[in-house]
Amino acid sequence: MRDTEPVDLVTAELHGSLEDPALMSMNFLNEITGRYPEALSFAPGRPVERFFDVESVHRRLRAFSGHLSGELGYTQEEVSRTLCQYGRTKGIVHGLIARSLARDEGIDADPESVVVTVGCQEAMFLVLRALRADPRDVLLSVAPMYVGLTGAARLVDMPVLPVAGGAAGIDLDDLVAQIHGARQRGQRPRACYVMPDFANPSGLSMDLATRRALLEVAEREGVLLLEDNPYRLFHGGGGTPPTLKALDTGRRVVYLGSFAKTVLPGARVGYAVADQRVRDAQGATGLFADQLSKIKSMVTVNTSPIAQAVVGGTLLENAYSLDAANGREREVYRRNLRQVVDGLEARFGNCPGVSWNTPAGGFFACVTVPFTVDDALLELSARRFGVLWTPMCHFYSGPGGSNELRLSVSSLTGAEIEEGLDRLAALFTERGCAPVNMQLMQSGGRAP
Q1: Pair 325, 100: CB distance under 8 Å
Q2: 351: nearest Cα among 428, 424, 433, 423
Q3: Residue 436: pLDDT band by 50, 70, 90 thresholds?
Q4: Distance CA 174, CA 208 (A)
């Protein structure tokens, strides 16, 4: 008999990204959540669930079917084929997405420049796969950075160079320095990934002057900007500056979009607006979107037409405006964010070494503490105190975030937020950081 189980494969003979922390972060966080289902969770950036309605899915599907037969003049057979058969690789709701972008974002997008994807994650992968043509190619990204972007880059063997964020959302001097430094090392910077509004995980936003200056740097340095904006509509009431894509006159911006937060996460529908012109070896030109669709045809073939129809029906029902469609959700996120920030002030306002930012919208706030924040502390927090959050170290490709945690405000009720912050205060106290009025809270009272 064998003493050990036979081994068919070893990780050393698999793709190197499979041992990369970026690819293990999401699974670890999901696993922790699964092990402690009773814990109150500030961890996932999920949309609020109280407005989910299965009947609305059927209604939106009917609305899109009516659009096909009415506005587009499809026969019933053509409607059935469009919804039930393999579909166009670039998608079937590209025209509706272009109308929505014009209505909500002021983006004038040729529908043919839109590639409808399986979530925004696929859009990221397609763009990076297309741009990574040589081992010298590198990507830049504001740090801390969304772990999905880091993981997608690892899958295509594209190194990610961190760019400092700073108070303005991006340090343009550091961006230029990183570009020049990479070129001096023989690397080719291809693009810089940014979230201009309420970024995940930092919550930071760029003002209009910074956006214009960033576009100038991209033009001058010959790099693309990958603009990802899933939280843009969830502002605190003051609106947001124009998107980079709306300001883009030189086709420097590839716009990455998602309907996970604004329509339905279960639909798994995203898109890329890639209107850059591409010239082939024979001198013929076409759209970058067409190149992305070639890759998509070998990855997911096409995005589910049924899922696209649900998104398309939503756009039709709301006259192409997702801004108008998300009024209830925006109010929930605005109220929750205010409650979390006020709750942090009430509990930790005079606690040395504890600070936090105050984003103007979105799903996330970040807290800095005078002790080490890591996965071991997260597990202790879940097991002993019944509260989950996200260590910020997961959002850095190198050192960073070791004294920071991210709180997601989107999916908890007001009562759950208060209880969750009380549990967080108990954890901080154990770490030697006693918050204000902790004795009152421990006796069943509430901090003011």
Answers
A1: no
A2: 433
A3: low
A4: 19
